[in-house]
Amino acid sequence: MRPTIMAFFDVDGDRITQARCTDEWERCTRLALSQSRKAKARWLKKRQTDDAGASERHMPSNASLPLTTIPPKDSPPAPSEHPPQGGNGKPNGSAKQARGARLTEDWEPEPEAIDHCKQSLGCSADLINSEWPAFQCHFLAATGTTARKLDWNRTFINWMRRARKDELRQQEIDQRWQQRRGQQH
What we know:
This protein has five helices and four strands. By secondary structure, it is mainly alpha-helical. Helix 4 crosses helix 5.
């Protein structure tokens, strides 16, 4: 079997290569280098052309000064680039705020949100108190878009809506179970 398989390989000293695999490897390497160069060129262009689209009359009077550069990705962003943390997460008009904010350790739902859960959803204080730690733990540990919300109060209300549905479903299951047990005896 070895002679049959070895017909498809080239042996060069202690190295065994296969022409098709070598060709594919080289093609992928060329493609990766090409894409890397293109990405680097886009990044440099964006970095060096801070005021690229502005005409002379829109340029500041100190336009002859060198353009400021955008810091590299690995440097921490300026504090103004961070969206507000926690709070009610409602947008204040900034472009960055539209992405939402993470839940902070000290965030608590507003009284209106709790009242809504009690009155409109029928949640008991016990249910709210038992679900709050799960809500907090879930979103503090979450990453990515799951961890960023525009309105944490609405997110809490939705969490409680699901918790109430689960509670009602469990009550219905318990009732059916009790009925079945009663019929068996």
